[in-house]
Amino acid sequence: MKRGQLIGIAIAGGAGLLAFLLMRSIVSGPSAPTQVAVPVNATEVLVARRDIPLGEVTKETDFRWQTWPADAVTPSFITQADGEAGMKFVSDAIARAPLLEGEPVTRQKLIKPGQGGVLAAILPSGMRAISTKIKEETSAGRLILPNDRVDVLLTRRERSPTGQDEYVSDTLFFNVRVLAIGQDLASKEGAKAPEGNANTATLELTPRQAELLARANAQGEISLSLRSVADGDPKGKGPTAAMNDQRGTSVRILKYGVPSRAYGVN
C-alpha cells in the first residue's frame, strides 16, 4: 500500500474516533461535578431543644448538642469540652431569661436553686423590687402586663386653705418597669391581660425610690399609668423620680399663705 493511502486511512480513522467521542459526550450529557469535602473548624454547643419560658425549671431533655462554627463560640457557651459538668449545670436549673428553640445556652441565662430566686436573678444590679396594691381602676383596667412601662401616681386627701378636704394627685416616678403582676413574671404569648385577678404589681425601683413608694402607700392610693411602647426605655436609663426627694431636704409650697405639699429637692 502506498504511503499516501496510509496517511488517508489514518486521518479518516482519527476523524471517525473524534466524531464517536463527540457523539458520546452529547448523548451521555455533562459529567456530574466532583464534590470535595472541605474540613470546617466546628464544635458542639448546647442549645435549647424547645422554647423555654422565664422561670421554668429545666431538665436535660430540654437541650441537645448542635454543631457550631468554632469562631462563633463565646466563652459563655456550654460546649462538649465542659463534659458532664455542662449538662449537669442545665439540669434542674431555673431560666432567668426566655430561651428560644435552637438558641445556644449561656450560663447567664440559667440559675441553680439556692443561688437566689427568679425575681432576684432578673433584677439589675442596684435595683430593688417592691410591690403595691392595684385594682381595675388603678391599673389601666388590669391590662398592664409584666415588662410594661408605667408612671406611678399618688392620690391622697389634704386639707384645703378653707378647711375643707380635697384630693390631690402627684406623679411620683416616670418610666418604671413592671416586674410582675401577681405571681406572673412573664406574660404568655398573645395574652391581652394577666391571668386571674392579681391585686399586686411588683415594680423595679432604686432603693430610695422604693422607700418613697412604701411611704406613699401609707399616705394614699397608688395608680399605675401605662406608657406607650414608643415612650419606652431605649437607653436603659430606668425609672426617674418626678419629685427628686432626698433625705432631709424639702421645700414646702405656700398657697395663699398656707403651707401645702412638700416636694423634695436636690
From TrEMBL:
What sequence ranges are listed for the domain SAF?
43-111
Task: Determine the domain of life of the protein's source.
Answer: Bacteria
In Swiss-Prot or TrEMBL terms, this protein is called: Flp pilus assembly protein CpaB
Question: Which SMART domains does this UniProt record tie to the protein?
Answer: SAF (SM00858)
Q: InterPro entries from the xrefs?
A: Pilus_assmbl_Flp-typ_CpaB, RcpC_dom, SAF
User: Which residue stretches belong to region Disordered?
Assistant: 227-247
Q: Which residues cross the membrane?
A: none
A Pfam family annotated for this UniProt entry: RcpC
